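Changelog note: in this version the structure field was regenerated for every chain. One regenerated record is shown below for reference.
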Amino acid sequence: MTFHALNSQRLEGRTAIVTGGARGIGLAVARRFAAEGATVAINDLADAGTMAAALAAVRAAAAEAGHGERPHLALAADVSAPRAVEAMVEEAVSAWGHVDILVNNAGIQAPTPGDSFDDAVLSRILAVNLVGAANCARAVARHLLARRAPGAIINTTSVHEIIPKPGYLAYSISKGGLANLTRTLALEFAAHGIRVNAVGPGATATELNKSWVEDPAARAVVESHIPMGFAAEADDMAPVFAFLASDEARYITGQTIFACGGLTLYADFQHNWAS
């Protein structure tokens, strides 16, 4: 396994919960945190085999970076259910004594056309992607405030935080809402040393995007819209989260870092046609 510019001590002594951590960007972040010294809890609703494989991958990343045995955890909980979230955080605190970092990465998407969306689908997407992040942030913030301890909360948004996604109304609403959740909580908790930021991935080759990842022609179309010319891998996102979780970002709060290959730069203007 090769990590980009790995700092194997940067998160030493920290503990982190990563929601949606059993695959994709969440798993890449969990592995990166473990490789940089953190003790990590993967949260997901994946099947037992997937959870076990993800936890093994986190342990392997830690061991490869020289961190040996750590009490990494796999915690199943539906982030849209407040009591389940509270129980998850309590379990992590019971195991470790404290939680320092939260990555709100759990997310789902499905078509929700503006004129014909299914009510239940829209509600579920918002419950997981947006309300779920608020639930987790509340539980971890309460813990940090009670300890009078600094901490970091990092939300996974998307380029669709600012770029509309026609046909996917619920996903667009959720990611736009996460942007304001990030800024609001950052302002609310700034005086307490709790930093709240977001990472906005662009087109990333994960299971969430398998409709184009597994189709060479579809992938070529996607990549034709990216100024840098290629889709990211999940491991390209992880260093951004690790930076924001670390003391190197101690003066950054309320911000979204777009790791998007230039998608947010209005790619249609890469070649001047307007003047």
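Spot check on this record: The mean pLDDT is 95. DSSP finds eight helices and seven strands in the chain.
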